[in-house]
Amino acid sequence: MNLHVTDLGPLNAPVIMLIHGYSQCGLSFLRQHPLAETHRLIIPDLRGHGQSEKPLNADAYASSDPWAGDIKAIIDTLNLQNPLLVGWSMGGWVVNDYIRVFGDTDIAGIALVGSSITTGQKLPPAALAARTNNPDVAATAMRGDDLAANLTATAKFVQVCFSTPLPAEDLAFMTGFNMLCPPAVREACRTRNEDYRDTCATMTKPALILWGQHEHLAPAPMGEQALNTFPNATALIYENSGHAPFWEEADRFNTDLAAFAHDAFRHVKGAAA
Predict the structure, then answer these.
(1) How many CB atoms neighbour CB 66 within 10 A?
(2) Can you give the pLDDT at residue 82?
(3) Which residues sit opposite 6 in a β-bridge?
(4) What is the mean pLDDT of the chain?
(5) Whole-Å CA distances, 199 to 18, 142, 230
(6) What is the 3-state secondary structure (H, E, C) of 104-160?
(7) How many CB atoms are located within 10 Å of the residue 107 CB?
(8) What structural domains does the chain harbor?
(9) What is the DSSP string of 214-243?
(10) What's the pLDDT tens digit per position in 185-208?
(11) Euclidean distance between CA atoms 17 and 174, whole angstroms
């Protein structure tokens, strides 16, 4: 699998891996680039997304093994020591996939941003209803071959990630990179039904659970379920954000993430500090 990976910051700095969400790509984290002054930022485009390889068979996305294997390959290829894994939305599922397959021994901790530890039909009922009943969140046309309908649904989906209307330039930019994800990949990703609770309950490393007060894609029951499952979890809620606090409240997010990372790395024997 050929993966496009952005590698920023000093090679010997503590590592933060930023893992984007459904239909997005590494460009989602442009406002986190200032963290590269003090950290090594690893920002992959997930399989099927952005500039990475895009197999169209559903088996390439349907289970934990391929997703976990990609993250492990990045860690091994770049010789990353005890990275902090940060997953936004579906990227949080990929973090959970990694823990399910490889455990948490070789990471410093995790942060889940607008994400969950159950997916699809296994979500908390209130969260599942909220995601199903909002047509801009369900965005079923994003998974179809009608290009005009797909593009319209994608633009609405991008906007519903934010609590306030995006400037036209930002909306166009984000819609553009979302359109790099083929409908078949979107279908396979969006229809996963996973329950990671048993895996998460065994995690020994710290977990930070973040979500926006004005969430539509990952409403509070999803964050609360994660908070109540990880043994060493703390939560931060962003009052002026929707699904993307790292964009809407970037300065606060970067400060919070750096502080959490500092504590996580400090507790890892032999990790860069």
Answers:
(1) 18
(2) 98
(3) 43
(4) 96
(5) 21, 31, 9
(6) CCCCCEEEEECCCCECHHHCCHHHHHHHHHCHHHHCHHHHCCCHHHHHHHHHHHHHH
(7) 26
(8) 5-266 (3.40.50.1820)
(9) T-SSS-HHHHHHHHTTSTTEEEEEETT-SS
(10) 999 999 999 999 999 999 999 999
(11) 21
